Amino acid sequence: MLASGGDGKSTTLNFINSLLPPNEVSHISLQALTASEKNSKNFSLAGLRNKRLNTRNDITDDFIQDASMIKTLTGNDPIYASVKFHEDTSFVNHAKLMFACNSLPEYRDISKGFARRGYIITTRGIKGYNRSEILKERGAFVIECIKAFCDQIKDQQKKADIKEWQLYQDEQTIENRKTWNTENDQVQLFLNERALPKGEVPSDFKRKYDTTYNAYTEWTFQNGVKALSKTKFNRQLREKGYKSTRSKNSRYWLGLKLKSDSGTMPKR
Description:
By secondary structure, the protein is of the alpha/beta class. It has helices spanning 9-17, 30-33, 68-73, 112-115, 131-136, 138-157, 171-183, 186-194, 209-222, 230-239, and strands spanning 25-26, 53-56, 78-81, 89-92, 96-99, 206-208, 243-246, 251-254. It folds into 2 domains: 9-182, no CATH class; 185-261, Winged helix-like DNA-binding domain superfamily/Winged helix DNA-binding domain (Arc Repressor Mutant, subunit A), CATH 1.10.10. The chain is built from 10 helices and 8 strands. The strands form 3 sheets. It has a 3-stranded parallel beta sheet, with no helix packed on it. The chain is globular and about 70 Å long. The two termini are 41 Å apart. It comes from Lactobacillus helveticus (Lactobacillus suntoryeus).
């Protein structure tokens, strides 16, 4: 859940927490769950065992160190978690992960498997609501949610083009995810700022690998971003649909033209 302070994020999470027994809810931060184990063991993961829900208020916008753990936690895969002063444990996570923040954390994993997992809901506070009346409706609220959930599954099962059911997403949620993914895809940000749209560039237009990477590293320096290696940069361009060719001495990107090539921005 994303919103400014005082817009009801904590209130919403606390209400959701109240719908389940306390022993089935954990409160581990996103950064703790995704901490890298390169230098030390991550003991936080074991806290998800036998939980149905994990919520945390006001998580920071710190960098997500190990985004692959999100895919493991939400992909029905077994987790091998370290337990302090005990043997490691193995389990499959069943806890839904819900976090509240004022600004979204950064990450480097741009795989589709990670990009599609985030549901970013914008919350807005309602002034003058009666909290006691809302709490009285908890039971009816849960029943209505279960009914709506079951109806959605039945509806999607009728559609032959949908292989797996999905949670409902409104336009704002979809746009929030798209924005978050773009803001964390530095190659796409570079293309958005420095390259011409594909539709405006002849498919046979050639641009050298080396000069393209140099333009990218210059852009990262100007924006205070750590540049990807040349291998990763080239792989991401290929994943974005750019094809390449080679001559005797050089390799070229096809259909990739920077604004500096056409004089729309100064060459550096």
